[in-house]
Specification:
The protein is elongated and about 150 Å long. The protein contains 13 helices and 16 strands. It has helices spanning 2-34, 38-43, 51-57, 76-80, 92-104, 147-183, 188-220, 232-249, 268-284, 320-323, 335-340, 347-357, 381-391; strands spanning 61-65, 71-74, 84-85, 88-89, 108-115, 124-134, 138-145, 228-231, 253-257, 263-266, 291-299, 306-312, 361-367, 371-379, 410-411, 422-424. 47% of the residues lie in helices and 21% in strands. By secondary structure, the chain is α+β, with helices and mostly antiparallel strands. It has three domains: 43-145, 2-Layer Sandwich (Beta-Lactamase); 148-220, Helix Hairpins, CATH 1.10.287; 223-393 and 403-424, 2-Layer Sandwich (Heat Shock Protein 90). The strands form four sheets. Strands 15-13-14-12-11-9-16 form a seven-stranded mixed sheet.
Length: 425
Amino acid sequence: MDVNAAVAAAAAIAGVLTGVIAMLAFRWSEREQKRPTRTSLHTDPVLPPGVDTVLSVLRSSAVVLDEADAVVKASSAAYALGLVRGGKLAVEPMLQMARDTRRDGEIRQVELDLPRRGTGRGEALAVSARVAPLGSRLVLLLVEDLTEARRIEAVRRDFVANVSHELKTPVGALSLLSEAVMGASEEPEAVERFAGRMQIEATRLTNLVQELIDLSRVQNDDPLEDAEPVRIDELVAEAIDRCRHQAGAKQITMAAGGTADLSIWGNRGQLAAALGNLVENAVNYSPARTRVGIAARRVTAPGGDLIEIAVTDQGIGISDKDKERIFERFYRVDPARSRATGGTGLGLAIVKHVAASHSGEVTVWSSEGQGSTFTLRLPEAGAARDRATDDQTPGLDEDDETGQTDGTTTVSSPYEPFSAPEVLP
């Protein structure tokens, strides 16, 4: 009996000890789970209050790195530029800057040229990177895309250089001719000949300055501020009147067709200048006793009907290597012929900008020795007016930059013939 009692007492004591040990182990496990570990501190860092909100509204690409160079926070723009890949900063120079800033706390800035992702043409992406400490453990990297700014600066430099060169030619000619007139003051025939040349150079200089003014105006002005319905037949008649003298001198027949009951929405002056430039080029680059045709038609498009105006000539044509450059400022397919006809190399650039500012485009088909067809495609009056009204509707995000077209030139197939055009005197 005493033996059984001793066994029972020993079992009870063992059970109590086991329960106490289990309870202590459970509480120790809970305490260890709640305690922050070095691993959790490393993988789940906390941004200072308000930083996340600020980064979300910055235009710059933003990346926050921790003490192990892991990405804590990155904006969508940073991923789009290819700065962050697989949770790591993928640009070694920026990563080294971040490490140096973490070490000494100094703010650093540098400009870099990075290869574009997904392009095999070796194009560089120009960026400006700025690194600054963010608290005691984090580093903030801000990256600005400078590619477009550099492109615009290069265009501006080229434009200034081209303008200087183009102005230098007639100004230098006028200077030399004036000296020749002074030296031939006693020779009436020579004076008359030199004066005639001076008048030609002065006209060329005047045309160049005027086209520079026109190009600046179409680039800076909003054509829809003074927009109105513009009848196609009126634009065609004005363009033909503008070139009637040159066409008559070369016995070139000008014909128009399909322009009745068609209209577009835009700035009358700019549209007249664009179409006039196309017709003038067609006349200037066509041989004598040939034909220049102007035709228009309505075409159906998903965003609304378009009006196509085609100007066709039987001139010298344009080679394949020149087609992609003819809309550049001051570019001439045949510089000698262009100077002989008084061309400045700005006419097609003006056409391109007018088309782009009116939500349209200009295309070209050409074959050497067979002539060329330039086609303006512009929204019809009703569709364009409705589109302009929608763009001004309240509630639209005005900061949503959709990237207005630059009027990039495309090459299309030959323009299909319309109804028989009317031959104009």
